[in-house]
Specification:
Elements (H helix, E strand, L loop, with lengths): L6 H4 L2 H10 L11 H5 L10 H9 L10 H4 L5 H5 L6 H14 L12 H6 L2 H11 L2
The structure holds iron/sulfur cluster (2 copies).
Length: about 130
């Protein structure tokens, strides 16, 4: 994938939206990598958490296509480890929110096996609705 980074992108609407929705300062991250080193679900991710924030810093909207933003479990391990006080789960939530607003749903209810729906705790179903569906 060839991507062009420009000043317009770095100062563009996408970066402003991410910062506004998350309430976080993207440039606070200095790419130390401690978040990625401690993330308990990093093995399932295509992009490391630190790579997600780097792409967001650069205004690379392609980050919205990464499964990582949906896999993040908001466990807060990275928040505890970050020396710069970055709340990465808030950034992940902002990226999911931008995707959902654009009409992307990560979960298709019709595709879920009925046996699974019957067995899942209601809390898990409601939580899943909130996270994955517009
Ligand atoms: S731990 Fe914090 S400063 Fe380090 S890469 Fe992750 S978000 Fe950035
Ligand atoms: S909040 Fe998300 S990115 Fe941070 S450690 Fe937990 S799963 Fe990983």
């Amino acid at each position: 994938m060839r991507t062009t980074i420009s000043v317009n992108k770095v100062r563009g609407k996408f970066v402003r939206d991410v910062e506004e929705i998350s309430g976080e300062d993207l440039l606070a991250c200095n790419q130390c990598g401690k978040c990625s080193a401690g993330c308990p679900v990093v093995a399932a991710m295509d992009l490391l958490p630190s790579q997600v924030i780097r792409m967001a810093q650069l205004g690379m909207e392609e980050v919205l296509e990464s499964p990582t933003i949906w896999i993040c479990a908001s466990c807060l391990t990275c928040v505890a480890r970050c020396p710069k006080g970055v709340d990465l789960p808030r950034l992940m939530e902002a990226l999911r929110e931008i995707s959902l607003r654009a009409g992307v749903s990560e979960l298709d209810l019709d595709q879920l096996p009925q046996e699974l729906v019957r067995e899942l705790p209601q809390l898990a179903i409601v939580g899943g609705f909130r996270k994955y569906i517009k």
